[in-house]
From TrEMBL:
Domain of life: Bacteria
Keywords for this protein: DNA-binding, Transcription, Transcription regulation
PROSITE patterns in the cross-refs: HTH_TETR_2
Residue ranges flagged as DNA-binding region: 48-67
Chain spans, region Disordered: 1-21
Pfam families: TetR_C_43, TetR_N
Annotated HTH tetR-type domain residues: 26-85
Protein name, entry field: TetR/AcrR family transcriptional regulator
Keyword set includes Transcription regulation: yes
SUPFAM superfamilies xrefs: Homeodomain-like, Tetracyclin repressor-like, C-terminal domain
Keyword RNA-binding: no
Length: 205
C-alpha cells in the first residue's frame, strides 16, 4: 500500500519513471534526495514532506512530481545509499592494505545502519520487497564485498573459512546490535572488536 505525499496537492503531474529527465529536473531530483537523506537521518522516516522540500529549497509540488508517494522517496534514498556503499566497496578493493580495507568497510556499513535499517523497516511495513527493489545495486555491493573478503583472506587478515554467506548475517547482526545499543561509541567499538576477533586469521584450522 502506497502513501500519497500530499492530498491532491503538488501542482505538476508525477514524472513517469521511464521518461528521461531534463538537466534542471535531474538537479531538482538530486536536491530532493539529498535533503530527504539529511532529514530522515535527523528526524526519522516519519519526517514531513514539507520539511524535506524546505531543506531542499524547493516547492512541495516539485517533491511530489518526482516522488508521488512516501514509499517511492524512501526506496530512492535507500537505493542511493546502497549504490554509494557499492561504489565505496569497489574503490576499497584496490587499497594497498587489504585487511585494513576489509575491516574499515565493515565498520562503514555498521555506521550507516541506523538510518538504513529505519528505511528498510518502513518499506517492509509498506509491503515493498526491498530485495527486489535493490537487486542491481545490491549485486554490485555483494560482488565488491566478496572481492574485499577474498583479498583480506589472501593476506591472512581474515580466516580462510569465512564466506559471503556468513559475512552478510554478521554485518546485519552487528548493525542491529549497534543500533540497539543507542549508538554509544564505546559499546559499538567493543561490539565490532568482538566480531572482528572472530573473523581474524589465527593460523591454520
Amino acid at each position: 500500500m502506497t502513501t500519497p505525499f500530499v492530498n491532491g496537492q503538488g501542482g505538476d503531474e508525477p514524472v513517469p519513471p521511464d521518461r528521461p529527465l531534463r538537466a534542471d529536473a535531474q538537479r531538482n531530483r538530486a536536491k530532493v534526495l539529498e535533503a530527504a537523506e539529511t532529514v530522515f537521518e535527523a528526524q526519522g522516516t516519519g519526517a514531513s514532506t514539507e520539511e524535506i522540500a524546505r531543506t531542499a529549497g524547493l516547492g512541495i509540488g516539485t517533491v511530489f512530481r518526482h516522488f508521488p508517494t512516501k514509499e517511492s522517496l524512501l526506496e530512492a534514498v535507500f537505493l542511493q545509499r546502497i549504490d554509494r556503499l557499492a561504489t565505496e566497496a569497489e574503490a576499497a578493493v584496490t587499497a594497498e592494505n587489504a585487511g585494513r580495507a576489509f575491516f574499515a568497510f565493515f565498520t562503514r556499513v555498521v555506521d550507516e545502519a541506523a538510518t538504513k535499517n529505519a528505511i528498510v523497516d518502513a518499506l517492509t511495513q509498506a509491503g515493498v520487497n526491498v530485495q527486489v527493489a535493490t537487486s542491481p545495486a545490491g549485486d554490485r555491493l555483494r560482488t565488491a564485498l566478496a572481492t574485499l573478503l577474498r583479498r583480506a583472506q589472501q593476506v591472512h587478515a581474515v580466516r580462510s573459512d569465512v564466506r559471503v554467506a556468513e559475512l552478510y548475517p554478521l554485518l546485519i547482526g552487528a548493525s542491529r546490535a549497534a543500533e540497539h545499543a543507542g549508538w554509544d561509541r564505546e559499546v559499538k567499538a567493543r561490539t565490532l572488536e568482538i566480531v572482528f576477533d572472530g573473523l581474524r586469521w589465527q593460523g591454520p584450522r
